[in-house]
Amino acid sequence: MSEVDELPRFPFPADAALEPPAEWAQLRSKCPVAHVKLASGDVAALLTRHEDVRNVLSDPRFTRPTPGDDAARIADSEGGGIYNSDMAEVIPQHGEAHLTWRRGIGKWFTAKRMNALRPGIAVMAEQLIDEMVAKGAPADLKASLGFPLPVWVICDMLGVPDTDRDRFSHWSDTMLSMTRYSAAEMKAAEQEFWRYMAAHIAAKREQPGDDLLSALITDPEPMSDRTLIATGIGLLIAGHETTANMITKMVAMLLSDRSRWEQLLADPSLVRTAVEESLRLDANLGVGLARYLTEEIEIGGVVLPAGTTAMCGMAAANRDEDAFERASEMDLSRSPNPHLAFGAGAHACLGQPLARTELQVVLEVLLRRLPSLDLAVDVEDLRRVEGLVVGGLVELPVRW
């Protein structure tokens, strides 16, 4: 057996849907920079301490692996998935070009714009809850609310029809695959998504609307078509997949110990800090963020050579006792809360203001409309989504 075969396989399996793998705490205390084997069979360095993860994510020398780097592959397929897609190559990852790209999109995620979106998100949440209640309990909160709400929001922002949401979901899942889909399926999904978005952008050129993609098209310094297409795909994937999963996981965490739900009912002003604590305590965030080390660096007392792929375990870092008092406990009033759920540095999640807005509004509406909400199954029966780079629950059965 080779040394690679003996390395622990990452991501680690977890016994319970809402609990972390035991390896996280073990590695943080004894081996905060650990070599692991990814789903592809390639080797990476896994970081699990808050300070190390934050420092690497914030270091401008290191960025997301690009197709030109000799980086470890996340997925077990050659030439497929989001990390090997044209999208990863087209969107600038370094320097001024990356900052310019972020500025162009970031104008759509300001606090002012998010506050303007809140009433519409609340109305949509109410409508989806009405439909769920009309069908009766038990219901799957993920299918009824967690998935359709963020899809509707991001589709509205991009000016694409949310009636195509099942196609977006399939393409997203396939491109986010580690082990669930073959290389051929991953490539086919990327090509279909690319053709769809190219046609959508061509239509927007002919008839611009009041949406993000139309604004990018008509900008005095417009992006190339390839960058526009890649941006549209990236925003659609990020704008619905991660938030849909997080809505579901947040509600599951709050209902898994119903005293938390009762605490929020008694004091709804805790919604904002409860959302942040749910983000911090999410044990099912996914594989984390990869960074390609372009030069030698010492991390946690370990020297990593240039060419190393570092996997930044944000979820593991978010439970670091050196960064958070009583880190394994859910404190709905925790403040400050410097969690790393959205990453850090130049590549921190662009859409985090939108994700926070959606999570807060959904929680506010659920508390108001369904104060008796509860899990319809035992916590032990909740199941994780397997084989994708993002983490989520298969479903969330609830009653009221």
TrEMBL record:
Keyword Heme: yes
Pfam families: p450 (PF00067)
Keywords: Heme, Iron, Metal-binding, Monooxygenase, Oxidoreductase
InterPro entries: Cyt_P450, Cyt_P450_B, Cyt_P450_CS, Cyt_P450_sf
Swiss-Prot/TrEMBL cofactor(s): heme
Ranges that cross the membrane: none
This protein's record includes keyword Ligase: no
CDD domains reported in the protein's UniProt record: Cyp158A-like
PANTHER family for this protein: CYTOCHROME P450 BJ-1, P450, PUTATIVE (EUROFUNG)-RELATED
UniProt similarity note: Belongs to the cytochrome P450 family.
Protein's UniProt name: Cytochrome P450
Organism ancestry: Bacteria, Bacillati, Actinomycetota, Actinomycetes, Pseudonocardiales
